[in-house]
Amino acid sequence: MSSHRDLPEGAVARILDGTTPPGVYRWPGAGRGDAAADAVRLAARAHWHAAVLPLADVTDKFSFLDACAEALELPDWFGRNWDALQDCLTDLSWWGAPRGYLLIATGWEVLMRTAPDVGAAARPVVEEAVTHWRTRRIPMTVLLDQE
After folding, report:
1. CA angle at residue 29 from 23 to 147, to 5 degrees?
2. What ranges in 31-140 are assigned the alpha helix state H?
3. DSSP strand pairing (24-28 vs 5-6)
4. In the chain, what are the domain boundaries?
5. What is the pTM (predicted TM-score) of this model?
6. 5-146 has which CATH code?
7. Neighbours of 141 (CB within 10 A)
8. b/e sequence 49-87, b meaning 16+ C-beta within 10 Å
9. Closest by Cα among 42, 59, 58 to 50
10. DSSP secondary-structure letter at 8?
11. pLDDT one-digit tens code per residue, 20-63
C-alpha cells in the first residue's frame, strides 16, 4: 500500500458511513482552514474516534514520536520508538470502542520535505496499522495532509 489515493472532496463523510473503504489517503488541504476540525466533528457524530496529528514542526524521529504521544494521547508505556508506535496503533484500547478510528496527519507534506527519513519510517507503521484494523470490526483511516 505504498501509493496513497487522493481523497475526493466530501469523501470524509463517505469514509465515516462506510461507503468509501478505510485506508491511507492523501487529503489535499486538510491543514487549511477548519477542514481537520470539521472532520473531527463529523467523526464524533458518526461515533468514530478522531485525532489530529500536527507534523509541520517535526524535524526528527523524536519530535515525531513526541507529537504522536501527545496528539494520540498514547499510554504511559509508549516506548518512543517505531515498534512501540506500531504496538499502540494496533491496540488503541485507551480510545474506547468507537465505530472507527480516524487519524488526520496535518503537515505531512511539510514533514516529507523537511524530514523525509522520518516520513519514510512512519509511513509503513501507519499502513500496517490500517491493515491490522481492516481485519477487525473497527476500521481505521489515516488522512495525510497535502498542500
Report:
1. 100
2. 35-45, 61-71, 82-89, 108-114, 116-134
3. parallel
4. 5-146
5. 0.91
6. 3.30.370.10
7. 27
8. bbbbbbbeebeebeebbebbbebbebeeebeeeeebbbb
9. 42
10. P
11. 999 999 988 666 668 899 999 999 999 999 999 999 999 999 99
